[in-house]
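Repro:
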Amino acid sequence: MKKDILTLLDLSREDFEMLFELALELKKRHKNRATDTPLAGKTLALIFDKQSTRTRISFETAMIQLGGTPIFISAKDTQIARDEPVRDTARVLSRYVDCLAIRTYSQNLLEEFSKFTTIPVINALTDTYHPCQILSDILTVIECRGGYDDLKITWVGDGNNVSHSWINAASVLGLNLTLACPEGFFPDQKIVEKALGKGSCKIVITSDPVEAARDADVIYTDVWASMGQENEHIARKQAFKSFRVDKRLLEVAAKDVIVMHCLPAHRGEEISEDVLEGPHSVILDQSENKLHMHKAVLKTLMSR
């Protein structure tokens, strides 16, 4: 039976822990120049509506290093762009390839692909969620802090798709998560309520970034205007001006706080140059870990 990762709610705590363990092992073997080709003869199709650097290259490289073949498909070059029903594309691709990673706008579109494929479907980003990003981010937290239990994780910025996946992760793993967002830019309330309904996590939402950062072990931020919101950039700069991650926030955080950003970053907007390039930043480790987590995800889903 196939398994998809459309949101992090598709995973149990045991699934998370298995992926973390596997990613760390694959990373260690990669550093030791070991060769692993469990996906030899298999093909991954990457269907992307949105531009990408890290997600695309890490998925492609992950597939190649595991012995398989990636095929990149720009959605505008497919018959979907000419109104072919998703069900037709999904069923045909199920006959051609072994897995789909889709980066698109609509979560509903992703779910429709999942409904009609017989192969695993991976959410490589939608406007609502970015699950694989958070898997690699928590992997980075584990490496830097030895685990995630009993840590205060603080999100500063827009209540966007990445924040939604942090909320999903909090609900499954029982994380202590605080989100500081401007009024009017809070995360989707239904997503928050569903997470809180599980009863195992602590989620606090505030419009005070300083209080949110107080005693934080992890401070995470993202761009203020995501892809598709470029026309809101000027208005958002005004609304978010007090939500920059800078020394002011680090001064009230834990002394060994780590600072995270999923990139690309706008230096001087959501994060200051000195913090992004400073000793608390683990941003490049985050980016590297996308490769190793994507290898773990692909190996797990395609070996079922």
